[in-house]
Design goal:
Helix 8 crosses helix 10 and helix 9 crosses helix 12. Strands 1-2-3-4-5-7-10-11 form an eight-stranded parallel beta barrel, surrounded by five helices. Strands 6-8-9 form a three-stranded mixed beta sheet, covered by helices on one side. Strands 12-13 form a two-stranded antiparallel sheet. The protein has 15 helices and 13 strands. It is of the alpha/beta class. Helices cover 42% and strands 13% of the residues. The chain binds beta-D-fucopyranose. The site of beta-D-fucopyranose (FCB) has 12 residues, from loops.
Length: 466
């Protein structure tokens, strides 16, 4: 049933993907190796040993996927450039065939009337840069700046909207603090330099993209409410520290030019060996003004002080190791996606309010990711009846609309994802798409949620054209 939701004229509906999760073709056309190729090939890292090497083969089927986007009626399509496709060793020699692929994709999108919104980096670091220190090294931020110049100079004539990095917080926590994602370093709190150098990479890229003529620049940060496990001081402190490390370590430097606490700034100084003057200079770069601020929202997190008897399963996909000053606590009484993530649409409104209160200079927001994993596949008649996804999206769009009425300046909303894809350590077992993919034949089948979203977008058109 079409929703009666109405968004303001000019509001942009879209969908999101990332290169490593959809492209496959990991050996094609001179592409270099990324940290995720290596990680996924290690036994035990990815559920069932699922391989991204062919994946859903978007690299070869992009025209079919653009046609699906066109029929959906989205204004925007967010995707990412694969750094190792364009610069196989992260810097130096350019692989022309990599640029050619994104030329073909962007031109197909523009021909279909869809605005391309590329992210420069969505976790697929070229392996050669990892071997030189990866995000624990300042040189990676400098290499990223050069990569940003290259992309800006090549594409800014056709691409107006740009996002620098995706979810630096998740990349830092899961890939560097823990070992659930590539590069799997497990450094716990000693991973903080990876946060700083990604932030620096972001700021440098903003400067380079602007110099190349980019018109609208933003970042895609994951944000979520952190709910204290109780009113006890120990739980309140643990939740505060966790929120600082996940939300505000990545929001404050960009939007206020500071780290959220002296402890975090001090930790970065100590772990990087930087001088306070250098840190201050970096923060000036990191806080370059933005035109849009991307928020990825999935679920709130409930956090308490670590306790021996605390059940730390079921909220984050991973257990937080003992020794860290917080523990995840399940949120009770909510429905969950098939991934086990709690479904709390009001959390979207809550985090938008927190952002507004915290940042007086907050640029217009785009919800750059929101969506849910439900495993529904085709029935006997071939139709995919994913009612739970429709309910999820409808509830989140209603929460968004309410918060916009309350003052949130949100100018777009992108569903994660247009199509089922490689969900990192969960492989292909989690399905986030509006379009189902048969993993044997790679046949694409729009789910009921695809038609629901199409109708919702179409119902906005009269309002938008006023
Ligand atoms: C986000 C990631 C995205 C996807 C969704 C489900 O954290 O940015 O790549 O995996 O989760």
């Amino acid at each position: 049933m079409p929703s009666s939701l109405v968004f303001p004229p000019g509001f942009r509906f879209g969908t999101s993907t990332s290169a490593f999760q959809i492209e496959g073709a990991t050996d094609a056309d001179g592409r270099g190796v990324s940290i995720w190729d290596v990680f996924a090939a290690e036994p035990g890292r990815v559920l069932r040993g699922d391989s991204p090497a062919v994946g859903i083969d978007h690299y070869h089927r992009y025209a079919e996927d653009v046609a699906l986007l066109a029929q959906l009626g989205v204004q925007d399509y967010r995707f990412s450039f694969a750094w190792p496709r364009i610069l196989p060793t992260g810097r130096g020699t350019v692989e022309r065939r990599g640029l050619d692929f994104y030329d073909r994709l962007i031109d197909a999108l523009l021909t279909a009337g869809i605005n391309p919104v590329p992210t420069l980096y969505h976790w697929d670091l070229p392996l050669a840069l990892q071997e030189a220190g990866g995000w624990m090294a300042r040189e990676t931020a400098e290499a990223f700046a050069d990569y940003a110049s290259l992309l800006g100079e090549h594409f800014a004539d056709r691409v107006t909207d740009w996002l620098t990095l995706n979810e630096m917080s998740v990349h830092t926590l899961y890939g560097h603090g823990l070992s659930e994602h590539a590069p799997g370093l497990g450094l716990e709190l000693a991973a903080l330099p990876a946060a700083h150098y990604q932030l620096l990479a972001h700021g440098l890229a903003v400067q380079r993209l602007r110099a190349a003529g980019a018109q609208r620049i933003g970042v895609a940060n994951q944000h979520f409410p952190v709910i204290p496990a109780s009113d006890d001081d120990a739980d309140l402190i643990a939740a505060h520290v966790f929120a600082d490390l996940t939300n505000w370590t990545f929001g404050d430097p960009i939007l206020r030019g500071v780290y959220p606490s002296d402890e975090i700034a001090g930790g970065i100084l100590q772990l990087t060996g930087m001088s306070p003057e250098q840190l201050a200079a970096d923060l000036r770069v990191i806080s370059e003004p933005l035109d849009i601020y991307g928020v990825n929202y999935y679920e709130p997190t409930r956090i308490g002080a670590p306790q021996a008897d605390r059940d730390s399963s079921g909220v984050l996909e991973v257990d937080i190791p003992e020794g860290l000053p917080f523990a995840a606590v399940p949120i009770e009484g909510v429905e969950r996606t098939d991934f086990g993530w709690s479904i709390v649409p009001s959390g979207l409104g809550d985090i938008l309010r927190q952002l507004r209160e915290r940042y007086p200079e907050l640029p217009p927001i785009i919800i750059t990711e929101n969506g849910a994993s439900f495993s529904d596949g085709p029935g006997a008649d071939g139709r995919v009846r994913d009612q739970r996804r429709i309910r999820f999206l409808d509830a989140h769009l209603r929460a968004l609309s309410d918060e916009m009425a309350a003052g949130a300046n949100v100018v777009g909303y992108y569903v994660w994802s247009i199509i089922d894809n490689f969900e990192w350590a969960a492989g292909f077992s989690e399905r986030f798409g509006l379009v189902h993919v048969d993993l044997d034949t790679l046949v694409r089948t729009p789910k009921d949620s695809y038609y629901w979203y199409r109708d919702l977008i179409a119902a906005q058109s009269p309002a938008r054209s006023v």
